[in-house]
């Protein structure tokens, strides 16, 4: 029977661990702040969870990833150490080096969509030496993992590049709606945003990129005025100011 250690039983780790239990895996969990439940076997430490496991899933945080690996890698034996935390490519390469030094295969696994509602079925992208083995161990339980032929950091990099777009877009929408609320026209702007998103097509990205470079100087002045308006509305212009600064850089 496959034994999987899950380090971190928060929103993502807990959901993945529960799905693994439901699919028939033996799951040992460790989280200093969250007790194991739902059939997850409580471990007393990272090493206790990793000992005898076939696969270790580190799903705590980028801040804790190195400490978790350092604490548990000595007990990992023949297991694959898979780091699912959202960290920089440099962090993933550091973890890979630490794992290889201990003789343990490492997989950089990027979770490519929100876990709530999907759990183990959340799309994942994996790379580094242990990626194939990690995918082979998780796929029979219902996981969907695409394996890249690349070193540690490549999967994390692709996830974070998407984050620049998706989180940046979300931040701009939130800031614009907050300002529109202060100006008394939130419903009007919301309708405009929805219409633009619905109308987006295969040529939208090319149009946005070409127009941004071509009209960078004029648009920088426009976003400077937009940032000033937000300040007048007592809305911090974080995204507007960042857009202005980018446009200024592109115009030089």
UniProtKB/TrEMBL annotation:
Highest taxon of the lineage: Bacteria
Any Pfam family: DUF1932
Residue span, Phosphogluconate dehydrogenase NAD-binding putative C-terminal domain: 180-249
Gene3D superfamilies linked to this entry: N-(1-d-carboxylethyl)-l-norvaline Dehydrogenase, domain 2, NAD(P)-binding Rossmann-like Domain
Residues covered by the 6-phosphogluconate dehydrogenase NADP-binding domain: 4-111
GO molecular function: NADP binding
Descriptive protein name: 3-hydroxyisobutyrate dehydrogenase-like beta-hydroxyacid dehydrogenase
Organism for this UniProt entry: Actinomadura luteofluorescens
């Amino acid at each position: 029977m496959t034994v999987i250690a899950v380090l971190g039983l928060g929103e993502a780790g807990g959901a993945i661990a529960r799905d693994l239990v439901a699919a028939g895996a033996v799951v040992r969990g460790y989280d200093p702040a969250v007790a194991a439940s739902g059939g997850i076997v409580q471990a007393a430490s990272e090493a206790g969870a990793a000992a005898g496991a076939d696969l270790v899933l580190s799903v705590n945080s980028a801040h804790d990833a190195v400490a978790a690996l350092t604490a548990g890698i000595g007990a990992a034996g023949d297991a694959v150490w898979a780091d699912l935390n959202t960290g920089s490519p440099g962090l993933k390469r550091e973890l890979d080096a630490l794992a290889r030094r201990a003789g343990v295969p490492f997989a950089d696994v990027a979770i490519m969509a929100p876990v709530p509602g999907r759990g183990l079925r959340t799309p994942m992208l994996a790379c580094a030496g242990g990626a194939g083995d990690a995918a082979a161990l998780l796929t029979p339980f219902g996981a969907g993992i695409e394996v890249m032929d690349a070193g540690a950091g490549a999967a994390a990099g692709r996830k974070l590049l998407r984050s620049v777009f998706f989180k940046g877009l979300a931040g701009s929408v939130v800031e614009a709606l907050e300002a529109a609320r202060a100006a008394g026209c939130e419903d009007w702007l919301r309708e405009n945003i929805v219409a633009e998103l619905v109308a987006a097509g295969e040529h939208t990205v090319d149009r946005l990129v070409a127009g941004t470079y071509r009209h960078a100087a004029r648009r920088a002045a426009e976003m400077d005025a937009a940032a000033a308006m937000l300040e007048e509305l007592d809305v911090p212009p974080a995204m507007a100011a960042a857009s202005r600064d980018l446009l200024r850089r592109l115009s030089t």
